[in-house]
Amino acid sequence: MKSRCGAVLLLTLAVPAAAEAGTLPAVKSGPGNEVPACVTPGRLLDYLKDRNPSLEPRFREVPVAYMRHGEELNVRWDYAFFQMVVETGSLSFQRTKGRAGDVSASQNNFAGLGATGGVPGESFPDISSGVKAHLQHLLMYAGDTITDPVAERTRKVQEWGVLTSWQKTFKGPITYTDLARKWAPGSNAYAAMLEQVGKRFYDDFCSRPDPEPQLVAEARKWRSDAVTVASPAEPTDSGPPERVSGADLARQAVERARREGETARSSLGFSPSAASASPAEQSPFQSLLAVVMPKSGGEALAAQPPAASVQTVSVAGTRPAAAPPKATPALKCRVWTASYGGLKSVIIRSVADQQVNYTVLDVNEGTETREVEAYVAAYAKGGQKVAEFRNQSQALERAFELCPEG
């Protein structure tokens, strides 16, 4: 593909023409190739402001959009963001020495899609559309078929089969290093530029406190729709149900939430004393991260809402136990989600009202212990942290393994 997707170079990079980057990560995210937990919209915005002190106020939405669409599409959106920094001159849309690039800021084109040989390229109606177009284009390079592309350029490249023969040469996942060599043919420095931008962020900004942690919750609004599903069908005599993995249960819950779009919120079976939790304990909770599994046997969710600002949701019910001993009835279990707005997740196990609760709690890196203690004190009396994970998906998978009865 003989085109440059961008028309702007960084103002501050000094990469020798023959420089080569090491192997950058695969374009598609997945187990072992997740975006590091320290990459948040707040830190990325801080990084942008450091590189471009004249950043337009409306562009504060850009890091949020990369996280949102990146997680939706399963893209290593951190390096997509770094590519945007290279392509737009840190959203200055200028070449060196103050000259305007081919793409203007009003086009919301963050990867120079269609900008070839002085042609300004495509325009998108808003920031979100422009970011999604960029990420879809990356996925197309990685080998995915984009069924409803935002960008006309993506549609055309797919229809023409421009990348087909190139993609067939790879036996493993296509990386950002591979993409850079195809994206900017003849420029050995392009991958090195992506690597340098990423290195500076990880070296200088990842260890800093997140200046705007609430932006994580803003980016994850797409995950916040919860749904209650009708009770499962009456059990039959066809034998015990086939055991479903925790990953499948979590995936089914997310799919139901996206399909149905309804909301269901309930308390975590907390005791009345939770209502007296101090503001210091309550204030860090930012948003609902909600996925829901079917309620069991018509069992209703608790009607009483949480007393504090934390929002939790039941994501798994139980089917009736098979004739447990009367003296020691089996405890039911449920899976819940709650959030302080962070990227890491922990599982907290607690027991209340003859029910075991597994709460997947999103916590902020560096303050995990304090946030877990606050949550347990207010909402899960006597609860204990049983596991810690890099992201919510992994935590939900384990939680459904611990409580698979839903």
How would you portray this structure in words?
- The protein has 406 residues and is α+β, with helices and mostly antiparallel strands.
- It is built from 13 helices and 5 strands.
- It has helices at 41-51, 61-73, 77-88, 127-141, 152-160, 164-167, 176-183, 189-204, 214-219, 246-260, 279-282, 368-379, 392-402, and strands at 313-314, 332-339, 344-352, 355-363, 384-389.
- It has a 5-stranded mixed β-sheet.
- Strand 3 and strand 4 (355-363) form a beta hairpin.
- Helix 1 (41-51) packs across helix 2 (61-73), helix 2 packs across helix 3 and helix 3 (77-88) packs across helix 8.
- The longest helix is centred in the middle third of the chain and has 16 residues, at 189-204.
- The protein starts with 40 loop residues before the first helix and ends with a helix.
Salient structural properties:
single chain; 406 residues; alpha+beta; 5-stranded mixed sheet
N- to C-terminal separation? 49 Å
Beta-strand content: 5-15%
Uncertain segments are 1-21, 225-243, 260-321
Order of helices and strands: HHHHHHHHHHHEEEEHEH
Q: What's the multimeric state?
A: single chain
Radius of gyration: 24 Å
Topology of helices and strands:
Blueprint: H1 41-51, H2 61-73, H3 77-88, H4 127-141, H5 152-160, H6 164-167, H7 176-183, H8 189-204, H9 214-219, H10 246-260, H11 279-282, E1 313-314, E2 332-339, E3 344-352, E4 355-363, H12 368-379, E5 384-389, H13 392-402
Parallel strand pairs: 2-4
Antiparallel strand pairs: 1-2, 3-4, 3-5
Helix pairs in contact: 1-2, 2-3, 2-4, 3-8, 10-13
